[in-house]
Amino acid sequence: MIAARALGWVLAGVLLASCATREAPAPFRVALITPGSIADAAWNSGAFTGLGQIHDSLGVPISHVEARTPAEQEEALRTYAAQGYDLIFGHGFEFQSPAERVSADYPAVVFIITSGERVQGNVAPLIFRLSEASYLAGMVAGGLTKSNVIGFVGGVELPPVREASEAWVAGARAVNPEVQSRTTYLNNWDDAALGREAARALIRVGADMLHHNADAAAIGVFQAAKEAPGVYLFGANADQTELAPSRVVGSAVIDLPRALLLVAREVQSGTFTPRVESFGLGSGVVQYVPNLALDSMIPVALAERVRAAEDSIRQRDGQ
Question: At residue 99, what are phi and psi to the nearest 5 degrees?
Answer without folding.
Answer: -65, -40
